[in-house]
From TrEMBL, chain B:
Residues passing through the membrane, by range: 56-77, 98-115, 121-141, 153-173, 179-202
One biological process term in Gene Ontology: vesicle-mediated transport
Name listed for the protein in its UniProt record: ER lumen protein-retaining receptor
Subcellular location: Endoplasmic reticulum membrane
Amino acid sequence: LLSGKQHDEL
Amino acid sequence: MNIFRFAGDMFHLISILVLLLKIYATKSCSGISLKTQELYALVFVTRYLDLFTDFISVYNTVMKLVFIGSTAAIVWCMQWHPVVKRSYDRELDTFRHYFLVGACFVLALFLHENFTFQEIFWAFSIYLEAVAILPQLVLLQRSGNVDNLTGQYVFFLGAYRAFYILNWIYRYFMEQRFSRWISCISGLVQTALYADFFYYYFLSWKNNAKLHLPA
């Protein structure tokens, strides 16, 4: 789902 | 998303709600550092630049809006609310936080993941968050006593960061592609800054005494 997304953390 | 990160986000949310509660319930912001709140507002604005460009999840977007909105509300209250602003400890909250902003920005220019506008501001926000609590901790030391809502505010902020460290450990073992050294190192520095506060908080809780930080 979040692969490749750099910053999935808040 | 893992339980450590979710718990961390909830502690972060609780810390901000505790602060909003204190301000609205007591109509006072004594013991709260406006400079720390300004730094946090800057942290959220520079970190969530991708708010409208990248959609990650409803949860992610909603939390970003809540963090930006609530911190902006706290800064607004402490500066413009006719009743609240009178209780702001202006003469105690004298930490020169502009140096923190400058130092973090210079560091972000050298240490970042990609040399792009968004990445540099993201790294800046990570470094700034690590030191944003300093004006608040200095204010607490100067004002000596810590009223329990402000103490809880710092406590929950520390818990949020501690759970994020557990989240990074978890992700390190569970995901082969894990490289968030900027967040990890900065998060460790940030949590270390809370360690001494936690120590005095725990002592006061154990002795059931008023939290008193050594001057």
